[in-house]
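Last lecture ended with a question: if I hand you only a sequence, what can you say about the shape of the protein? Today we answer it with a concrete record. The protein is Integrase. Below, first the input exactly as provided, then the predicted structure, then a couple of comments.
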Amino acid sequence: MSRVRKEIAITTRNARRQLKARKKPYCRSLGPGAALGYCRRAKGGYWVAVEYLGKGDYRQAQIGVADDELAADGIDVYDFEQARRAALTKIGALRSDDRALAEGPPPTVRMVVEAYVLSRDAHERELSEDGRLRGDARQRLTRHVLADEIADLPLKALTEEGLLSWRSRRSPGLSGATMRRIQNDFRAALNLAARQYRSRLPADLPTIVKHGLAVAGASAPVARDGAALPDADVRRIIESARVVDEDDGWDGDLLKLVAVLAASGARFSQITRMRVADVQVTHGRLMVPTSRKGRGAKKATHTGIRVGADIIELLRPSIAGKGGSDVLLQRWRHIQVKGTETEAPRWERVTRGPWSSASEITRPWAKIVAHSGLSADVVPYALRHSSIVRGLKAGLPIRLVASLHDTSSAVVERHYASSIIDAMDELSAAAIVPLIPQQESAAVVPLRPAEKSKLGAMTA
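The predicted structure:
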């Protein structure tokens, strides 16, 4: 720029007052191919960003009014330093637009959400035993994002206000948990795009996504101690599972699933991936696959959990004569056979396979809870809460409880605080010893026989 334009003093008001009014800007270099320009008018002037395009060509973009007559506010009126920063930002945005145009059409919200859905489907197929897809993310994003006007917005035009408007258009009937799942999926799709297209998108896009899709109250810890059940209620659930299993012809599959959930405290997605070899009979232990949650450092593939002999005996039929790589917990799959003029349609068993979705336990669980006499609000995850609280009340270290349940100590401390306090209180009480010496009462000296006789004579 210095070989094309002469450097002029424009940093102060007094220096700018000495300049003659003209349309051509007086320039100050900001680096290779970039400059801050000042256009002097009869009264005051304004700032422009100037970029050298090569072969004697330039392009300009107006920034704002110079603080020649008015005080600078950094919004409409700029001093030199504010104008310099704004010019660099403006030129950077122009260059980013040029690169995006050269690399192809600008990515839109629809484009990146559809790509994210395809990647999620591929990941689910890879992890699924039978290639079946849950498709939860696809359904949520298709209904609540791709069907909305925000889908056709270019990513570079996405703003925090636009995301907040999208949130306000969601159905008021959605529960808080459902809305959080939708936002989490949408946020994941946008963050993935921000990494893939970072050279073509504004640098502050991750910040826009973070604040525009922030979950209200997400930082407030949710106490889960109240969801834990007493051991007696857990036994009632298992016994009810046995009854429902027999009545509905589950052949023990439902009972084993519920019993392992209760004994291990693991998630449904973990125990349904267990293999026959994961039952260590001699050690009374289940090797539960770790969850697929998180993107941190690699962790162990399994967590060893000690269980009672009753659970091992319950699982013996599932491991007898099976290969170590066979899925441990399975269930019957059915197909509906069309009815005839004399027979109604019926369901027939066709094959056995692993449990594929937690939704498969929804109906039988409702029957189990109803039979046990517990509140209908009790969910299968209560068995996990109960296991965690049981470990804490037994005095196990928080870190050990967290490790056995494939979570972090911070999560346990955040959500099970009252149980931790109760357990620590009992341990602390056991360490209390008396510290103040007991006051001894005055010694009683027995009278001698001679003194007794004198005392008797005096009282006579």
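Comments.
1. The beta strands are 26-31, 34-40, 45-54, 57-66, 77-78, 279-280, 285-289, 302-306, 330-337, 346-354.
2. The CA atoms of residues 126 and 132 lie 10 Å apart.
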